[in-house]
């Protein structure tokens, strides 16, 4: 039997034909390789075990989240502890014992389900912060196949990890994987810093981390979008998505309604631009912000704040034939959104912390290269690491944001073309299909459980794009078949 790919995520796509870059990429990989996608079904299901949904070239198996799971595992530990922790908002962390207990309980229960269907030669790819401990429970149950993990959000700073009920648990969870994939080189550095601070961890010369009897590799894999498909949709979107009410000149913002996106900063900056820079110009900020996790207090507060800000700014500046801020608090269909991107003179991304931010990549992909708009991009979005010719801004600096808006709206064509070409190359190079192939190739190459008697052959020094490996020799690091502890040097990410 050919090796199967088993994808595990918090949610499972329920449509027969998935939408969105990640869903499409994983669907393609599963279709080619064969395998299973496992995730929670939004509409429930049987009280226990996995159940099959839909028909596709591969199996889609779902599990149920009961009321307590949803409250304590999902809304609780996942989104009231881990989400703010990873997004530099320790002040919003809500530590309640039942949250942590249910988080571990759900992951342990899911591991038991997976063990019943997994084979020793499967590749298992686990996604995101909801399922961090899953590999450890799979290992406890005796599963020895290669297991990878990808974190779609920022990796937390080492100081923030001390907020957790068991600060050392994070390193132990990740060490159960063969490959930990992160969005950026900066995330990789933070992850390796966590391991260097843990007395249980030791480093090989290639940046692999020894943790007990296992080797884990840590690498960055910047995620992207389905570039050609999205560009084609944008090019075909000839119909005006605004109808007869299209703004003459507008800036687009597209974000889930989340405190990590810097939306209040964005609204204030646009108000500052109108107050000090507009000089008779009447651009519109079109902000699309679908609701998310509205039952969590922090999300209710940001909803109220944005409504107050948009009302105040419109009240101060609006005219009979012009509304400065169009605030749309619901999702917009992807094909219509592509057309809006293409028409926008600028895109404003103000993330205070972001794993990648695919809106930035969608906007660049949608542009007409003969007359491209300008991407204004937060330095704290993962996309800024490679899209260095966007207008990079500090979203905390309202004045700087306002000046960037003014610069974008007045930028000459030659400069817009230059910036767009550079950003477009970064978008093409991180196409989501390439991302999937690169990750799975790296996972297949992992060595898994460490055999120290022949460990010397795996410690080969090299420089990588994800980090710089230390320069000591194999003989310095492997003494009597054991890796040498040296946490004072930089570890690479392979």
Structure description:
The protein is an alpha/beta fold and 494 residues long. The protein has two domains: 5-224 and 435-483, Rossmann fold; 240-429, 3-Layer(aba) Sandwich (Rossmann fold), CATH 3.40.50. It is 39% helix and 16% strand. The protein contains 16 helices and 20 strands. The strands form four sheets. A ten-stranded mixed sheet has the order 3-4-2-1-5-6-7-10-9-8, with helices on both faces. It is globular and about 70 Å long.
Overview in brief:
With 494 residues, this protein is of the alpha/beta class. It has helices at 21-33, 67-86, 97-117, 134-140, 158-161, 169-175, 185-196, 227-236, 263-276, 297-317, 334-343, 358-366, 398-410, 413-429, 432-444, 474-477; strands spanning 5-11, 35-40, 51-52, 59-63, 123-127, 146-150, 179-182, 201-203, 209-211, 214-220, 250-254, 284-288, 325-328, 346-349, 374-378, 391-393, 463-464, 467-468, 478-479, 482-483. Mean pLDDT is 86; it is low at 451-494.
Give descriptors for this structure:
alpha/beta; 20 strands; 16 helices; single chain; 494 residues; globular; ten-stranded mixed beta sheet; six-stranded parallel beta sheet; Rossmann fold; 39% helix; 2 domains
């Amino acid at each position: 039997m050919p090796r199967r790919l088993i994808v595990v995520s918090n949610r499972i796509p329920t449509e027969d034909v998935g939408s969105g870059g990640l869903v499409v990429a994983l669907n393609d990989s599963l279709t080619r390789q064969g395998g299973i996608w496992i995730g929670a079904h939004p509409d429930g299901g049987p009280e226990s075990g996995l159940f099959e949904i839909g028909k596709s070239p591969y199996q889609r198996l779902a599990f149920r989240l009961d009321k307590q799971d949803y409250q304590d595992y999902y809304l609780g530990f996942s989104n009231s502890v881990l989400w703010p922790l990873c997004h530099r908002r320790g002040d919003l962390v809500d530590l309640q014992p039942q949250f942590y207990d249910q988080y571990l309980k759900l992951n342990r229960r899911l591991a038991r389900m997976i063990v019943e269907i997994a084979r020793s030669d499967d590749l298992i790819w686990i996604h995101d912060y909801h399922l961090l401990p899953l590999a450890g429970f799979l290992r406890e149950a005796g599963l020895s196949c290669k297991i990878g993990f990808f974190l779609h959000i920022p990796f937390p700073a080492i100081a923030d990890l001390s907020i957790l009920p068991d600060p050392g648990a994070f390193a132990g969870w990740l060490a159960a994987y063969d490959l930990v994939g992160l969005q950026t080189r900066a995330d990789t550095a933070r992850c390796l810093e966590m391991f260097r601070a843990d007395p249980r961890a030791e480093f090989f010369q290639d940046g692999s981390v020894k943790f007990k009897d296992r080797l884990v590799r840590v690498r960055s894999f910047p995620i992207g979008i389905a570039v050609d498909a999205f560009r084609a949709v944008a090019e075909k979107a000839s119909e005006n998505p605004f109808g007869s009410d299209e703004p003459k000149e507008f800036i687009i913002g597209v974000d889930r309604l989340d405190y990590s996106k810097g939306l209040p900063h964005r609204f204030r900056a646009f108000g500052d631009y109108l107050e000090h820079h507009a000089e008779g110009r009447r651009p519109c900020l079109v902000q699309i912000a679908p609701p998310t996790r509205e039952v969590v207090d922090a999300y209710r507060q940001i909803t109220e704040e944005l409504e107050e800000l948009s009302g105040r700014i419109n009240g101060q500046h609006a005219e009979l034939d012009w509304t400065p801020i169009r605030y749309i608090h619901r999702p917009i269909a992807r094909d219509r959104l592509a057309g809006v991107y293409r028409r926008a003179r600028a895109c404003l991304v103000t993330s205070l912390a972001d794993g990648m931010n695919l809106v930035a990549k969608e906007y660049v992909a949608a542009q007409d290269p003969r007359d491209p708009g300008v991407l204004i991009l937060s330095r704290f979005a993962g996309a800024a690491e490679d899209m260095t010719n966007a207008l990079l801004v500090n979203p905390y600096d309202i004045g700087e944001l306002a000046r960037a808006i003014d610069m974008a709206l007045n930028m000459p064509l030659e400069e817009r073309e230059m910036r767009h070409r550079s950003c477009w190359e970064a978008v093409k190079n991180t196409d989501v299909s390439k991302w999937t192939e690169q990750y799975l190739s790296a996972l297949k190459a992992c060595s898994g459980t460490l055999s120290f008697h022949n460990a010397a052959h795996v410690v080969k020094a090299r420089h990588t794009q994800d980090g710089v490996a230390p320069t000591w020799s194999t003989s310095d690091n492997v003494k009597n078949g054991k890796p040498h502890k040296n946490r004072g040097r930089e570890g690479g990410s392979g």
